[in-house]
Design brief:
Layout lengths: L1 H39 L8 E5 L6 H8 L12 H9 L4 E9 L3 E8 L4 E6 L2 E5 L5 E5 L8 E3 L15 H14 L4 E5 L3 E4 L4 E3 L6 H14 L5 E5 L7 E4 L5
Helix pairs in contact: 2-3
């Protein structure tokens, strides 16, 4: 009948319009995604500049090379964590932060390590090391103002880590440098500390280190330092002091 045929045609036209609207929406979304992808991959959002801050011993060129990110790299999708890890592998770098500044600048900020000791490595060369035993740099002359860490065997290069046996010596050294700035000449891996005004302090181990430091400060404040040979702190409750032969 005409009425039913008219209704059927109307239903078909509505279904066609719905299909057309969906097709238009899908096409619009596809165009938007393609446009966004084109913008993201375009030179508008590439790395144009790599700015570095915080390095006294690490050059900007070293930081940029270690980061492994060159000009023209897309800003979107950069693995900043991986770049930070690569920069932190540099000998002097303790921590690195890589951040984006849109549209095209990458900022790399570094914090550097502080040397606490110098290790003789042969051929009149010295390795500067930090409190973690990281070798920061190998230099031709003994660094001024750094106590010596002795009895370290083997060749050392920048970026190396000292052998496990050096850890206790660095702990003792760091504690004494803080408690007695300027009073320490060196320490061996046997934990024998050479004082600046003569004499050796025998720690034996890091057990009871704070008590041993207090005992040392007490002894040095109460005795004459002339001809001082050894202060034995292996029993911090009863430190033993010996002098060189021939001294009163």
């Amino acid at each position: 009948p005409p009425r039913i045929r008219s209704r059927r045609n109307e239903v078909l036209r509505d279904a066609g319009r719905r299909r057309l609207r969906r097709a238009v929406v899908v096409a619009g979304l596809a165009c938007a995604l393609l446009a966004a992808a084109a913008v993201v991959r375009s030179p508008l959002l590439d790395v144009d500049e790599i700015a570095t801050t915080g390095g006294d011993h690490t050059s900007a060129a070293q930081v940029r090379l270690a980061a492994g990110i060159g000009r023209g790299t897309p800003m979107v999708g950069l693995d900043t964590d991986a770049a930070e890890a690569r920069v932190e592998a540099l000998p002097w770098v303790a921590a690195a932060t890589v951040t984006r500044s849109w549209p095209g600048t990458l900022h790399v900020t570094i914090d550097e390590r502080a040397p606490v000791a110098a290790v003789p490595v042969g051929d009149a060369r010295w390795a500067q090391v930090d409190a973690d035993g990281r070798v920061l740099e190998v230099v031709a002359a003994e660094p001024a103002g750094l106590p010596a860490l002795t009895a370290i065997d083997g060749a050392l290069t920048a970026g190396d880590t000292l052998p496990r046996g050096a850890g206790d010596a660095l702990t003792v050294l760091s504690t004494l440098v803080e408690a007695m700035p300027g009073g320490i000449v060196g320490v061996s891996t046997d934990l024998d500390v050479t004082l600046g005004y003569g004499g050796v302090v025998r720690f034996g181990s890091t057990a009871g280190l704070d008590d041993k430091v207090v005992a040392l400060e007490t002894v040095l404040a109460r005795v004459q330092l002339d001809c001082l040979a050894v202060v034995d702190l292996r029993a911090p409750g009863s430190p033993a002091l010996t002098r060189h032969e021939g001294c009163s």
